[in-house]
Design a protein that fits this description.
This protein has two domains: 3-109, no CATH class; 121-251, 3-Layer(aba) Sandwich (Rossmann fold). It is of the alpha/beta class and 253 residues long. The protein has helices at 3-15, 20-26, 44-48, 61-73, 85-94, 132-144, 160-164, 167-171, 186-191, 214-221, 236-251; strands at residues 33-34, 39-40, 54-55, 78-81, 99-101, 106-109, 121-126, 148-152, 175-180, 198-202, 228-230. The protein has eleven helices and eleven strands.
Length: 253
């Protein structure tokens, strides 16, 4: 439930156009709605300003669909991550206005923030095309949460001139998400070029000694650029969530 929804209900009670009983009925799903298999947190938007997000991996298509419908009914923007094609088909059949990204493995329904002014500027950077599945998860998450997103892809350190060619775009961002695999060097380089927070996302891209992203993770954790912080391997969603909060704070100044 959105903060504005609470105010609308209370205002209607104050004006006498809604009974206290009817208001209580509308608020009965707070703080959560029990679907049997899941307790949907409708209170999340009121606490943190961002709604609950569905992690679809490990859930059946029907479980994901019922959670998605519950959130959609409350009027918030709905995002499901790590969505497989079967689940995506089911969600799109029930929510034709939703958007599916096979690359990012996300399904998004933007119904609250559509038309609102964008808040905060986030640049999403990735080292190579092989990192796009993580970068796009980050970019779409940030867009669903109403941030202005600039995509700067395939600018890895093996061709440093490509990164230097987008320094102007980097300088305009309030926060930068950098996704990289292999040795994970790109966030440190970006961090040395800008004066804003850099959120590093190690990806599970690379040959055997990359250990599924562990090498990139350790390299990023040992960055000598002090403005670099690190999230877990392939966690584009987590990086975007934090970036949105940082960008909103910067935008409110």
């Amino acid at each position: 439930m959105k903060p504005s929804s609470i105010l609308e209900i209370l205002g209607a009670v104050e004006r006498g156009t809604l009974s206290a009983e009817a208001a209580a009925d509308q608020l009965k799903s707070l703080p959560f709605e029990d679907l049997g298999h899941t307790r949907v947190d409708h209170h999340r938007s009121l606490r943190s300003g961002l709604p609950e997000v569905i992690y679809a991996a490990g859930k059946t298509p029907e479980q994901t669909a019922s959670i998605f419908a519950s959130l959609a009914t409350s009027g918030v923007d709905v995002l499901a991550t790590r969505v497989n094609p079967v689940t995506a088909d089911l969600l799109l059949s029930r929510h034709p206005d939703a958007m599916y990204s096979a690359m990012a493995r996300t399904v998004a329904l933007c119904q609250f923030s559509a038309g609102l002014e964008l808040r905060g500027r986030i640049a999403v950077v990735c080292a190579g095309t092989s990192d796009l599945f993580v970068a796009e998860e980050a970019a779409i998450t940030a867009e669903v949460f109403n941030a202005k997103v600039t995509r700067l892809y395939d600018v890895g350190v093996a061709g440093i001139h490509r990164l230097l060619a987008v320094r102007h775009e980097l300088a305009e961002a309030d926060v930068i998400i950098v996704c990289a695999g292999m040795e994970g060097a790109l966030p440190s380089v970006v961090g040395g070029l800008v004066g804003v927070p850099v959120i590093a996302v190690p990806t599970s891209v690379g040959y055997g000694a990359s250990f599924g992203g562990v090498t990139a993770l350790l390299g990023m954790l040992n960055s000598c650029s002090p403005n670099v912080s690190v999230v877990n391997i392939d966690n584009g969603f987590g990086a975007a969530y934090s970036a949105v909060l940082i960008a909103r704070a910067a935008d409110s100044r």
